[in-house]
Amino acid sequence: MSVNVEMLKQKMKEKDMSVDGLAKRLGVNPSTVYRKFLSDGEAFTVGEMHKIMEELCLSEADVKEIFLFQNLQ
Fold this sequence. Notes:
By secondary structure, the chain is mainly alpha-helical. It has one domain: 434 Repressor (Amino-terminal Domain). The protein has helices at 5-14, 19-26, 30-38, 46-56, 60-67. The chain starts with a helix and ends in a 6-residue tail after the last helix. The mean pLDDT is 90.
């Protein structure tokens, strides 16, 4: 299972949040967030996912679609 990175990026864009802004809120370096995006989000910790949910004010449906994404490719 992987993270729907494209949808996560879209939600970030909707909330006008940059990767730098997200990294700051997560307490990590922006390059770390970029690497996690490149790994299909599999490297995000549960704590980071919760923080992302809070910071982006994601709905339950959004959370399921982003973090419980099953890439069937």
